[in-house]
Each structure stands twice: as C-alpha cells, then as structure tokens.
Design goal:
Layout (H helix, E strand, L loop, with lengths): L2 H18 L5 H36 L14 H8 L5 H4 L2 H34 L16 H32 L4 H15 L3 H9 L8 H12 L2 E2 L2 E2 L48 H5 L11
Helix pairs in contact: 2-3, 2-8, 3-5, 3-6, 5-6, 6-7, 7-8
Length: 299
C-alpha cells in the first residue's frame, strides 16, 4: 500500500536534485511521507464512514441480512452487490462483479501487505539509519525479485478490483437514481482515476441512502408511459396513434368511408363530357365544344 509512495518519492528525489541542485533529505522525506499518509488516512476515514453508513441504511431498507458487513472493508461489496440494479436480464447477471470485487480486493490487500513487508519496511529502516541532513537517494530503496513479484500481483489485483468496484457502484446508481446514474458514474470514475480517490462513490451513495430502489428498466418504462399517447396530464392533441387532421378520429371509425369521396362528383371531372361520358368514348361533345383559346396550336 505504501511501497508505491516510497518509490515515487525516492525516484523523484533525483528530479529534485536536477531542479534545485539538492536531494530530498531524510527530514524532508519523513515529513512528506507522514503528511501524505495522514491526509490519505483522513480521506479514507471520510470515505469509509460515508460508504458504510449509506450501505447499512440502504441494505436495511431492502431487508437484507448481515448488515454488519457494511462496516467491513472488503466484505461490504457483498451488500453492494445485492443493492445493484436487478430489473433487466443483463443486470441480474452482474452478480459476478460482487465476487470479483470481494476476491480481488482481498488479494490486493494481502499482496500489498507483502510488498510493504519485503520492500517498504526495509526501505524505511535504511532511511531511518541516515542522518537528518543526509540525502535520500535510490540506494536506500529495496528492490528485489520478491518485491517485484508481489508488486506485479498487487497491480493486477488492484486493476481487477478497480473495474469490478466501478461496475458495482454504477449499477447501484442505476438502481437508486437511474435519471442521474450516468452523471454520478462519470464524476466518480473521473475523480477516482485522475486524483486517486474513491471519495465520490461514497458521497453519492450517502446521498441515495433514503431513496427507494427503482431500477433502470422500471424508470425507462415509466418514462415511456409518460410520453406514450399523452403529454403529461393533458390529452394528446393528435389523438391516439391514429390521429391526424380529422380531430383524432380512430381508424375503426373511418372504416367504410370512401377515401376520395370529395372527388366522386363528375361535374368538375376534366376527363368526362357534360353528360358524364368519358371523352374517349364519345367525342361528339368534344367536337361541338367551343374553342375559347384562339391560339391553341393543336386545335
């Protein structure tokens, strides 16, 4: 957990030397590490408190068992997995993220502890052996095959844990705030990746702790019903699917009507003579019709 912090500070000590013509001293290193770890502990305490309280309240409203798991860092994902969206077939298969998060987070903690045991502790002892004004160089960093192996495994488990936890949080957002799930997910993931803090997952969960579980499928159905055939509490001015310019008359009511009844009269039919006979059958009327167009080229 702390090996990457030690590694980055010690390696960056060379950068400090290139810029300021001096290495990070033992006192500066201890001060920086202590401050960083202290801030991270405060951040995790806030994250842990908000997430645990939210999960406990949401699980209790769902009448779930083993509510005490909400306060166990890795086991809490069992309850989170049961709180995720289950209103669609694809969502019901997301139970796999539950076990992936629990297993990967547990293995990440174990491998990180081993990295600290084989790498961080010896490195810290080397630093403490220095004088206060001595520079901290890469020579004090303990790197061997054991630390490399456990560090690699820790990174892989950390990646699996990151992906599975993100999916679980997103599915919980879809279950309790489907209309804002995308916004909550984007903000949480962006802050987690850019600033290396999962704090916003806990903040949004805490905001949703008193909501009823809806589910994205039910939300989508309610939105579809809202727009289908009506506009809110008002009548659809275009009728129900068969409307148009006839005042919303249904298709059943228009069955049997002649669609071209306004043209059934032959009085104004240009293709019939005055008696109603087609011009092609009896052209007598056509020959006797006066020619009003004196310059008709075809007369």
């Amino acid at each position: 957990m702390f090996y990457s912090l030690f590694y980055e500070l010690i390696i960056n000590s060379s950068v400090i030397y290139d810029v300021f013509d001096g290495y990070l001293t033992k006192f500066g290193f201890i001060f920086t590490v202590s401050t960083t770890i202290g801030l991270r502990l405060v951040e995790y305490a806030v994250f842990y408190g908000l997430r645990s309280a939210a999960i406990y309240k949401m699980a209790k409203r769902q009448n779930l068992n083993h509510l005490w798991l909400a306060f166990i860092p890795c086991a809490c994902f069992y309850l989170i997995g049961l709180l995720q969206d289950d209103t669609t077939p694809s969502a019901r298969r997301n139970i796999g993220w539950l076990y992936t998060a629990i297993i990967s987070s547990s293995l990440w903690v174990v491998t990180s502890a081993l990295v600290d045991g084989f790498g961080t502790v010896p490195t810290l002892l080397n630093i403490l052996a220095l004088a206060d004004a001595d520079p901290v160089t890469a020579d004090v960093l303990v790197i061997n095959n054991t630390t490399r192996l456990f560090n690699l495994l820790s990174g892989l488990f950390s990646l699996a844990f990151l992906i599975s936890s993100i999916m679980l949080y997103m599915n919980v957002f879809r279950a309790y705030a489907p209309e804002k799930a995308m916004k909550y997910s984007i903000i949480s993931v962006a802050v987690d990746i850019l600033f290396d803090t999962p704090l916003f997952y806990a903040i949004f969960l805490f905001m949703l702790r008193d909501r009823e579980k809806v589910g994205y499928a039910r939300y989508a159905a309610s939105r579809a019903n809202y727009y289908r055939g009506s506009y809110g509490n008002y009548r659809n001015p275009y009728g129900n699917y068969g409307g148009g310019y006839d005042g919303g008359k249904r298709r059943e009511e228009r069955k049997g009507e002649e669609p071209f009844e306004e043209f059934d009269s032959s009085d104004d039919d240009p293709f019939t003579d005055d008696s109603g006979a087609p011009l092609g059958e009896d052209n007598t009327a056509e020959r006797n019709r006066p020619n009003d167009n004196g310059d008709d080229l075809f007369s």
